[in-house]
Design goal:
It is built from one helix and six strands. By secondary structure, the chain is α+β, with helices and mostly antiparallel strands. It has a domain of about 50 residues. It has a three-stranded antiparallel sheet, with no helix packed on it.
Length: about 80
């Protein structure tokens, strides 16, 4: 067991099993609604908790793919700002 950025995982067949915190609730219409805490802007839903968790896994995988694509394009710099005392 090891820690990467606060996420715990075990190496299993070259895959990492991670515990990703999420928030959910049951809406008035009976659907389960939720989001991954790291991505609260990406709400998803399911008929039951199991389906919601499947949808949350999809959200996580899509976000990871986006991050990989963006990482190749991102550049960084230093911004110098004059601040009044």
């Amino acid at each position: 067991m090891y820690t990467v950025g606060g996420i715990y995982g075990m190496l299993e067949n070259r895959s990492i099993i991670m515990d990703i915190p999420y928030t959910y609730w049951e809406a008035n219409d009976g659907w389960f609604v939720g989001y991954i805490n790291a991505y609260p802007e990406h709400l998803t839903q399911g008929h039951d908790l199991a389906e919601l968790e499947e949808m949350l896994i999809d959200v996580y995988q899509i976000r990871q793919d986006e991050e990989k694509r963006l990482a190749q394009k991102r550049k960084s710099g230093i911004l110098r700002v004059k601040v009044s005392a």
